[in-house]
Amino acid sequence: MNATLTPAPRRPIRELPDELISQIAAGEVVERPASVVRELVDNALDAGATQVTLRLLAGGVRLISVEDDGQGILRDELPIAFKRHATSKIGNLHDLESVATMGFRGEALAAINSIADCAILSRASGLNDAYLLDGRTGELRPVARGQGTTVEVKELFYSTPARRKFLKTDATELAHCIESVRRHALARPDVGFAIWHEGKLVEQWRRCLDMPLADAAMDAALAALDQRLSDVLDPEFLAQSVRVDWHSKQTNGAGQPALRVWGRAGVPDAARSRGDQQFCYVNGRFVRDKVLTHAARSAYEDVLHGNRQPVYALYVAMDPTRVDVNVHPTKIEVRFRDSREVHQAVRHAVEDTLAAPRAAAAAGTAAGQPQAPSLFGTTSEANALPAPGTYVPNRPVAPMYSSQPAIKFEAEEGLIGHRVNDISLLWQRNATPEGGMAERFAQVKEEPAQRAGDTEQSAQPSHLPASKEAWPQNRDGNQEAWPLGRAIAQLQGVYILAENGQGLVIVDMHAAHERIVYERLKTQISLTAPDGSVHPLASQPLLIPATFAATPDEVATAEAHVATLNTLGLEISPFSPKTLAVRAVPTTLAQGDAVELARSVLAELAQHDASTVIQRAQNEILGTMACHGAVRANRKLTLEEMNALLRDMEATERSDQCNHGRPTWRQLTLKELDSLFLRGR
């Protein structure tokens, strides 16, 4: 049966009524109650408010009331407020191209008024009278109110009941409203916020700065921002993040940096499975921008494990004329005039901040800096290492008694270092040069009161150096602490055990050495030759080439990427139709397995075929090379080698994680050790 299509009747082109136009605009601007909250809080902040109070009923469906103490609205301007495209923010094209306020489109109140019952109550600054405007009837009458404005939105979507069916439960809508205010609060520590629901206070963030944020000194602004981040997110966010403060060398007409990036970036250990704590702001406006998100993610690309998501709150300040905020009706998207410049700025700002080893920061914990990673959470400030030059060996901590004498860390004359096997001598029955077991136990028995009390008068703890020469000294002769301490043993050929002023440090030697080699390779390959070309890695020819049976794909890859292999310090050439020969390897990896290294690099190059992709994947290839060149498990190290590895970690960027994102070391504090053995209870 053939069905015939009946043409639709012709409809004339006509102009839509204003109310329908506003309802169409409301579909773009108002998605749920949180959208109304965002628009009204924007207006409150633009009015210079220092306190914003939000009151909700039924998750914002029955009532949304936003109160502020800003400049207020004059009586003659109140009737215009509900008209479409009426605003005090812009007046010409130049104002639109240099928007410095949160709102500017002038359509939010009109759109909201078309789908809800709205009213505005306002008293302008310097006047004694306040007026109430009914958005439905247009009636204007005098009322009592202090300076500021209150906007009430009742029965949201009452005129469009179909939209109301798409709303979630009251609890879900309330959560979205709180999140909307939270985003504003993170950008404005100079404004206090309070949220009430069904007559109960659910959230409150007090004002952290007694002056406008734009007028405050940078140090005061950063301190206020840290306080607000701690209040809104969590004190743990502040403890597990580092401060970001970067600015460009170019300046604007006022002598200020043309581009500035500041805020806080979470350490890799604080990464989450979800990206729900990633906040980006441009000139105080919360945005979702692919350029900023990608730039921040790129800064974490070789310090995060798997698909973990970093946490950060980043603020970008730039000339308003260089960013277009008139892209999306909700103003949550922006477009940069030079997106590459912004991308590089954000990436370098976060990358440079994360590059500093946290082991060094633990030795001199500055205010607002992250604390040493611990096996049982964040190390408390009371147990943090003192700054270099202020280390006190006789610090009163719980003594650690043992049945064997302390290890001598000073190398004896004629010896390169203590071998791990020498530790077995400590458990011999015969007396050691410093006394045998019986004498040690007798000494402990003679001091029962001291051991039970663990007071400051107790004998000097054996875990701390007995002499000044045991700890390093700087040029001024003052003692300085090694952040990662001194190596004392190797565990199962995998972990290095070291002691520092906080307690016990456990190091994954393969992961740590992998990061060290990786950073050295990146440094070498980042150098440029005099002609501007990429400087190849230093290579070492093999006395006897290492040959291996290769697949046709491996042979083809080796022949196609000769220049790339040379840049990586590798010389791989066909030895026969089915055999490849490795004739040179990078000097840094000269002691590694040449065949295994060659196979891994060829596999990486086969995946990244195009030259542009190879350039982007360069760090990934270097990471593979570093993994194969790092010290392997079950390799016995001397104490001198272990200490050398610890010192390299302290001087290497991003040494807290290997290039796969796994942690390289953990701190077990004395307090945590005491809790394991129930000491002090």
Would you kindly provide a written description of the structure presented here, covering whatever features stand out?
The protein is an alpha+beta fold. About 30% of the residues lie in helices and about 20% in strands. The chain contains 22 helices and 24 strands. The chain has an 8-stranded mixed beta sheet with strand order 5-4-3-6-2-1-7-8. Strands 9-10-13-11-12 form a 5-stranded mixed beta sheet, sandwiched between helices. The protein has a 4-stranded antiparallel beta sheet with strand order 18-19-20-24. α15 (about 510-525) crosses α21 (about 640-650). The longest helix has 18 residues, at about 170-185. The termini are far apart.
Could you list the spans in which at least 5 consecutive residues all have pLDDT below 50? 365-372, 374-470, 473-479, 609-614
Strands of the widest sheet, in order across it, are 5-4-3-6-2-1-7-8
Radius of gyration: 33 Å
Structural class: alpha+beta
How much beta, percentage-wise?
15-25%
